[in-house]
Amino acid sequence: MTSSLFDGKVLLAPMVRVCGLGFRQMCLDHGADIVFSEEVVAAKLCKAHAEVVPYPTVGEVTDYVVYEPFKTGYKRAVVFSTCASCPTIIQLGVSDPAVGAAAALVCCENVLGIDINMGCPKKFSVMNGFGAALMRDPVRAGHILRAIHLAVNRAELVHARKDKRTIPISFKTRLQRTASETVTMLGEILAAAGHTASTPVVHAITLHAREPDSRPDDAPLYTRAEEVVRLCRADERFQSICFVLNGSLESRADAMDKQKQFGFGAGMLARAALVDPRVFSVSPAEGPLFDVMRDLLLYALRYRNPFKNFKYHLTRAFPHHEELRPMMEKVQLQVKHYKDSITFFNITASEVEGLNWEDNEAVVVDTVPDGVPSAPVVLKRGRVEE
């Protein structure tokens, strides 16, 4: 197997409303090797344009924004953000090859790689034809991968890059009912993508060791995942692909142990990192978890995370740890915006000085900037529509 960007690494999993720029940077600072964005809807990203914005105490951040009609003006909505200190694998939610290619071209020069969501079973993803819906349509899944690869890795773009690099293309999926069914699905995806041993398209495959209808607390199916990788390794098409294990990995040490135990090339942390990003560290620092959540707030303020996403993160983290659980009711009742959060976590005035955290929420403007398209994709009744 050839060397992969992911080989031997411990990765942050894509988590909706959690993996914004601030949390990704926090995980990198605690030792994550590679971080994934939350799922970004390709149909919205392909309508976005890049704006380089100076964030106080951070530096230049590239915001990919759309201007949506709002009352008598337009709301500046950030679809995805990244910066030089936080190289990111962007995960796309996409159901159409052409839309996926267009979205990838918007951001490809500012990301570490592009991942396609082919396993999320949540209603929004499946209703829109991406996530786990692609497990039932491996040919379309493969066509999406091929379209993106051909768009971002065509010769003139690769030659124009300073490092002459190709953009790694990967996907994240789940297990079918049996190992053989899973291998068949993966093979059909590669075939439709035009991936061969001599002309590779797919860089890595993340296997969440659960089925689409499994509950998050169901035991991961590591043995089945191990069998999938073993069977795939017998096919030369998979020789260059790094397999990443996801599903209830608890720490860097646990991820490293299980990737070796079950024949994977890398490990991916999700819920454990959501609760405590220190799990990425080789030697995790000790101390109250409340202080970690306090740091999470400071990252959210510095990197302009929308408050609703920060609050969502708290409501997912606090119930999952005995130290934080008794404070959950206070979080629900007392933390209603960032001003409350600053009080709740005892943030000092000097810690937020100059952050302009009031700018974290969407800005409404009277007119759309020159040269920027308006009337982007909107979300109606849970569906992506034009």
Automatic annotation (TrEMBL):
CDD domains, alphabetized: DUS_like_FMN
Gene Ontology CC terms: cytoplasm
Keyword terms, alphabetized: Flavoprotein, FMN, Oxidoreductase, tRNA processing
Cofactor field: FMN
Domain DUS-like FMN-binding: 11-282
Membrane-spanning residues: none
Any one GO MF annotation of this record: tRNA dihydrouridine synthase activity
Pfam family, one: Dus
UniProt-listed PANTHER family: TRNA-DIHYDROURIDINE(20) SYNTHASE [NAD(P)+]-LIKE
Protein name according to UniProt: Dihydrouridine synthase (Dus), putative
Organism (species): Angomonas deanei
Organismal lineage: Eukaryota, Discoba, Euglenozoa, Kinetoplastea, Metakinetoplastina
